[in-house]
TrEMBL record:
Pfam families reported in the protein's UniProt record: DctM
Organism: Aquibium carbonis
Entry GO MF terms: transmembrane transporter activity
Transmembrane stretches, start-end: 30-49, 61-83, 107-137, 149-173, 201-222, 248-270, 276-294, 306-330, 350-383, 390-416, 428-450
GO CC terms in record: plasma membrane
Protein role: Part of the tripartite ATP-independent periplasmic (TRAP) transport system.
Subcellular location: Cell inner membrane
TRAP C4-dicarboxylate transport system permease DctM subunit domain location: 17-452
Similarity comment: family membership: Belongs to the TRAP transporter large permease family.
InterPro entries: DctM (IPR010656), TRAP_DctM (IPR004681)
Assembly: The complex comprises the extracytoplasmic solute receptor protein and the two transmembrane proteins.
Name used for this protein in its record: TRAP transporter large permease protein
Amino acid sequence: MDPVLLGEILAGLMFFGVIGFLMLGFPVAFTLAGVSLMFGLVGMWMGVFDPSNFGSLAGRYIGFMTNEVLVAVPLFIFMGVMLERSKIAEQLLLTMGKLFGDLRGGLGISVIIVGTLLAASTGVVGATVVTMGLISLPAMLRAGYDPKLASGVICASGTLGQIIPPSTVLIFMGDMLSGINAQVQMAKGNFAPTPVSVGDLFAGALLPGLLLVGLYLGWMVFKAIFDPASCPATPVPEAEKKDLLREVVVALVPPLVLISAVLGSILGGIATPTEAASVGAVGAMVLAAFRWRLSPRIVREAVISTATITSMVFIILFGASVFSIVFRLMGGDNLVHEFLSQLPGGTTGAVIAVMAIMFLLGFILDTFEIIFIVIPITAPVLLNLGVDPVWLGVIVGVNLQTSFLTPPFGFALFYLRGVAPNSVSTGMIYKGVLPFVGLQILALALLFLFPDIATWLPRWIYS
């Protein structure tokens, strides 16, 4: 058999083998590395893979560990964990609930607003959904909210951390797309390509993220007008209104200042994402200290949680590197290129196919796992077909956020199920998120029809 064809067959079998082992429940990082090593040995035995290629792994791992951009990841995670452990997020939720309580749908509106702020400060979906589920869901149920609507609002707002900067997912995608875009452009003969940075991706994701927030708020207003029984007002006692303005200022202004400083310095070109992340981490500790909630115990818990999450992400990245080397050097790149380039619809058909695959993978894999596997395989082909790298990164983020919400396997649904009372059934949670899944699909359609939603702001800022 032709060695090239044999290598492509092995690469395809390896991809489905990885998916199969993951569905059996094996750990992701070890599955990626282990299955890839097995297929690498088979490819070596059949003469279609040179084992000396594994020698490049050491250089890759050192490159990850010394990559200045990726240093921002643990810093942003620490910033979010510190805000959550010091109860700053909890105080923000309670205060905003009082501010909008006199309005029908006011509690839902406050959850969306706070979810947006937490997304811009934590970027950790699980922590946001759990925090809001523990605090807001009981309050919404006591106020007479439809459990389905309350569950949907909390899950949808909690997943905004996938797309609203400074999302850790965007940091990894920005770093990957930067290198891939440079390689694709140089292969085309462009030896001075326009660089793609994490800042570009942050700027590109800002308007789509705000678009989703606007759609969520619009749905809450719609429910308040046409189905007021599902989201009644919760009037605040007059005694509590006296100091409400001060409470709002104390709870809202410091996080807003911190978020504005972090994002503003990145988008304005004043600081790199890593420098801004360090400011955010220190700023979160300062906010906790001002609230008299900074203690050695809280710092220790935040550090341990940050180390755990960061280690999980990077060990998956290391495993994905083994997969990428074996897949690409056995001819997987050619296989993917032929498959995507021959799809009906040209570039649009190729993008839709990749988005559909990533959406389905979102039912069984975490976001980081998906981007580490799929982006290195498919992005070179899509960028070679003329897809804008910033637009691609943003639409991948929105697509994975949609997958996180979609029943029956959406991860956000499991996070909420873990903290919801027994009176809220799994079926209620599933039904509650369906309108928000529809809004996500609408946002995806708008991004397809009007790419400038994602590409205009980066061009305007960095032109």
